[in-house]
Amino acid sequence: MMSLALAGSLVVTALLGYPVASFLLAVRGAGSNSSWLKLWFSVGIGLGVASVIFFLCTLATGSVNKKFIIVEALAVIALFAVRARIKTHSQREASQRFSIRALFRDHPLLMSLFCGSLVLQVFVWVLLTLQSPHGWWDAWGFWNMRARFIFRAGTRWKETFSAVETIHGDYPAFMQTSIDRMWSYVGGETLAAPALLAFVFTFATVGLLVTTLAALRGRGQGLMGGLFLLSTPLFIRHGAIQFADVPVGFFMLAAVAALNLADENSGNRGLLAMAGVLASLAAWTKNEGLVFLIVLCFCYWLVDAIQQRRLPSMSGPLMFVAGALPVLLVLIYFKTKLATPNELVAAQGRDTIVKLKTFSRYITIGEAFVEQAVRVKSIPLLVLPVYACFVGVEWSQIRRPAVGGTLLALCLMLMGYFAVFLTTPVDLHLHLSGSLNRLLLQLWPTTLLLFFMVTRKEVLSAEY
Hints:
Blueprint: H1 2-24, H2 34-61, H3 68-85, H4 89-94, H5 100-106, H6 108-131, H7 137-152, H8 174-186, H9 192-217, H10 219-230, H11 233-240, H12 245-264, H13 269-285, H14 287-308, H15 315-338, H16 343-346, H17 351-357, H18 359-391, H19 401-423, H20 428-454
Helix pairs in contact: 1-2, 1-3, 1-8, 2-3, 2-8, 2-9, 5-6, 6-10, 6-11, 7-8, 9-10, 9-11, 9-12, 9-20, 10-20, 12-13, 12-14, 12-19, 12-20, 13-14, 13-15, 14-19, 18-20, 19-20
């Protein structure tokens, strides 16, 4: 029964996400992969919407209970009713040409390597999960523990964000509410819920990267992107130990994927709105996601303005903001009414100026960035330049707003991380060793998408 309940909770999230994704994903350029793109976008949107519904219902009723299931059911009915009335011709055509057989036919070696790597990494993921069923420190120290507080606290659940300040009461509530939602379906706490959530995000990230690249750059590029991600040991390990950096990395990747698909379709407004939704869900997952939302929106339209040599139309930014606004409003309420102040910001003082003037801190942080980048990306990072030299680079792709904007956004994110470490009130070496690798991991799937967007596709990709 527990397995059926957990499966049912995921089915409902898919039903919440699918009508939204299929409506917004009116993509002619997605070609044979549109149905698979809908699947992976549906996973993220569905889990995000379900988390927000659970949070609002808990807020409205005063405690964790199963009344949210009624709201979810009504939302599913309403979304499918709206979706049934609004169909596009391009969507009906786009899903007819997908075939796994075509991947084996066009790229038999790549597809075989990808499938073998996928099976191996699923096996590794399961072994790591069985070895650490509670996850590692961040999982049981932050996400799972607070989920238990909320689940057990009854009408005093709000106090779990302010009463225990040592576990970062300002962290957004996506992970906790998603776990509590699954426990509510089951009727009790089970280690299978956070593990299942971690599994979904780990391999949905792979699926989204593969299908997005296959849609935009060809099947061969998609399979290569998936192989590079699966070959990143830290990605699989951090997925298995239930760190939130993998889910926030998924939402970052999904937002950038939606922007690239929008570019491919002449600024499709539905896709711009979808990018806003997904970026806001990154903000609902971790604080870094909020920074990412801001810089991505700014950088995308900055590059667009530079390319057009004039201020672009505001319809695009407005659609992005419209997509992000519902979740952002919930996040603003959470930050202002429930969360405690951010510890890193609150601890800033006079010594911040001294730290900014200390040159040795710059050297220490720079060395750590290089060291951790190699550790996080390992062999994939070393092979990427070789691959680029082999297939060639299409530098013209950088002029596209989604590609150039994402590149600029990633640079600003790294600069932001650097600034946080530079001014951190925590011991610098301790802070770097404890969090830098995870911060870099958040950006890795998006970095891979960006890399394969600018490398030449003719070498490996069959024509659609």
